Amino acid sequence: MIDPSMIPALLKGLDGVTWQAAVMMGISFVLFYLAIVKDYEPLLLLPIGAGCLLANLPLSPLMDEHGMLTILYRFGIENELYPLLIFVGIGALTDFGPLLENPKFVLLGAAGQFGIFLTLLLALLLGFTEKEAASIGIIGAIDGPTSIYVSGILAPHMLGPITVAAYSYMSLVPIIMPPVIYALTTKEERAIRMPYSQRRISRRTRIMFPIIVTVMVGTLVPFATPLIGMLMLGNLMKESGAVERLTKASSNEIANMVTLFLGLAIGSTMGGEKFLQTQTLFILILGLLAFGLDCAAGVFFAKILNWVTGGKVNPIIGAAGISAFPMAARVCQRLAQKENFDNFLLMHAMGANAAGQVASVVAGGVVLALMGAG
Amino acid sequence: MRRYTLNISDREFVVDVQEIDADHFEVVVGGESYQVRLAGDEALTGAVIAPAPASTATNTAAAVPRKVAASPRSAPAVSVSPPAAKKPAGGGKGTQTAPMPGVLLEVNVKPGDTVTRGQQVAILDAMKMHNVIGASQAGTVAEVFVAAGQSVDHDTPLLKYGE
């Protein structure tokens, strides 16, 4: 019945296991663990883990020229489609109301991007090329889609590690941010109360905001137009209330579908030989550093605001000037509540966070312009 | 600003209280202005005021405002502002209001319940975050104005504390 010469052919899979692939499969299990047991960004880490596992199984047909993972990658990562579609959904979910109530927090969003440029310089010192260094720095904004967008243009060969770093750190916001905040603030500063300040924002303002921002940013930083345009399109749909079906589809069905595709495609870039390099380790460390520096810059800037306003700004909210919306703001609220159970600065933190969302996109555009991408 | 007209031992005091911060007030009594910081605020359930009034509210100002803080009056629920709700000391009446707009997911107390300061009384969903609302004072819940599922605005009265 069985021809003995068939046996090697049947065991070809076992033969194809390399140590790198085995390590990567281990990493995919860690991602599953983080997603399922620890509940860290499960929507992203689970598909990324699956993509990583499926890509590293020996001789995976999914990775063939016409394999599903290859097609998903070409369909939406290579040409930047996924991050832009995700941005429509993010725009439809982001409430810029708290920012419009407190426009001064735009400054915190801007301050939250300093780390990007510091990290860029450090990466240059470590021997990365300019374009690679810029892609690594963007991790600090903790903005997954912008990271994918920028590195997809500047350093496509580093897309895997950069995306994994950006999304992992996004999920680790509740763990990474508090120590940075604690290290830079005193108990008294963290106890500063910021009562809710009521200011009604008219519907007209809410509708005008995305249009004005798109025109302004698009004119000043043309490289940011795709990202800001999609973000603000989503927001315009939401605030206008005119296309509820499209708003819902963008923030639910389309965002969910694209998240699945994006996760699988990114996971598939984590091939053992490419991923397991010291360079990846550097990228992860520098990305973490960029994140920490962004938080620190935000907190410092909030301290300055606090000093200027005579003690009315709780420095905690400076850390919300990064992109991870709304997680960063929630972490700030939690820390503030730890000092004073009745201190609700959530809305202020949300304002800074929404500003960080816009600022990270602008920073991405500025970096692309500086690197002369085109 | 709130104006309290108090009659203490047959002497009339007009006290104007302006909230600067949640725990920081400007208080004007008899033409003198005081910066008052509320450092503590607890209800001593069951305790009775002895002849020498034990003031539990700590004031940095002199004697007159201290008496003021020890005998707060709570106005009708609707117009009460959060500092007024926080001020009551020594088991006085007070209303707790919503700190920001949102939807109440849970209301964990009912009239008659005894709570300690900071104990969870409700969960407010604001910006899709679950915020634990702690009791603004210790005491007994006299009235609950809201129910789970209700959306509230900033300053909507949530509960009233009583003796």
Written overview of the protein:
The complex is a heterodimer of chains A (374) and B (163). Helices cover 71% and strands 0% of the residues of chain A. By secondary structure, chain A is an all-alpha fold. Chain A is globular, with a radius of gyration of 22 Å. The mean pLDDT of chain A is 91. Chain B has a four-stranded antiparallel β-sheet, covered by helices on one side. The two termini of chain B are 26 Å apart.
Looking at this protein, list some descriptive labels.
heterodimer; A: 374 residues; mainly alpha; 21 helices; B: 163 residues; mainly beta; OB fold (Dihydrolipoamide Acetyltransferase, E2P); four-stranded antiparallel sheet; 2 helices; globular
Short description:
With 374 residues, chain A is mainly α. Chain A has 21 helices and no strands.
**Radius of gyration of chain B over alpha carbons?**
16 Å
| Main sheet: strands, sense, barrel of chain B | 4 strands, antiparallel
- Which stretches of chain B are poorly predicted, pLDDT < 50 over at least 5 residues? 53-92
Q: Largest sheet of chain A, if any?
A: none
Briefly note the structural class of the backbone of chain A. mainly alpha
